[in-house]
Amino acid sequence: MNTTQAHTIASSSQLLKATATAACVAAVLLLTVVLPAEYGVDPIGTGKALGLTKLRAPANPKPVEADSSQATSALMQRAQPYRSDEVSMILKPDEGAEIKATMQTSDRLIYSWVAEGGPVDFDMHGEEFNAPSGDYTSYSKKKQQSGDNGAFVAPFHGLHGWYWHNKSSQPVTIRLKTSGFYEKVAKQ
Questions:
Q1: 70-122, pLDDT tens digit by residue?
Q2: What is the spatial distance between Cα 124 and Cα 139, in angstroms, rounded to a whole number?
Q3: Phi-psi category of 143—alpha, beta or left, where left has phi over 0 and alpha has psi -120 to 50?
Q4: Under CATH, which number does the domain 83-187 receive?
Q5: Which residue from 79, 83, 87 is spatially nearest to 104, judged by alpha carbons?
């Protein structure tokens, strides 16, 4: 056997080892990843442990029926009409004031407010009707803000809105825009 033949035999041996290694890695990946994620088959339990069985889409997905809880939770219907309001007020130096919306549980509104003339501290909160005096739920409380935008779903029947405090030495105008389903919005 000459040197060239020995080298060829060694290369064939290395190729065979590499092929066997690749086949073993492919088999492990098939059992631990592909079967659980794609087919929901988890023969050794690693798919469940890694959360891969949740990735598989059902073979025959069920359509959402109109009376199912999933469909009705996506739909909100109200007797009161959709409304939009704009309210503004001027806060003197070191003055605070509130604007609140009267809302039923699950009513929704979208809001946007700006503070013209300087930043203000604010607390967006709600007070349940018939709650003890001073009892409220704070949703967002920030210092020195010049505005805020968002959407809100009332967790209970009551007054939900904002308290702004002007800590500057200049007057600040608060301009609030709301749209959605609620009974009214007014200065408090």
A1: 555 677 788 888 999 999 999 999 999 999 999 999 999 999 999 999 999 99
A2: 5
A3: beta
A4: 2.60.120.380
A5: 79
Q: Which two tokens stand for residue 28?
A: 């492990």
Cα separation values, 107 from 102, 114, 153, 180, Å? 9, 23, 6, 8
pLDDT computed for residue 44 by the predictor: 78
CA distance 115 to 121: 10
Identity of the amino acid at 99: I
Q: At 16, list the tokens.
A: 């065979």
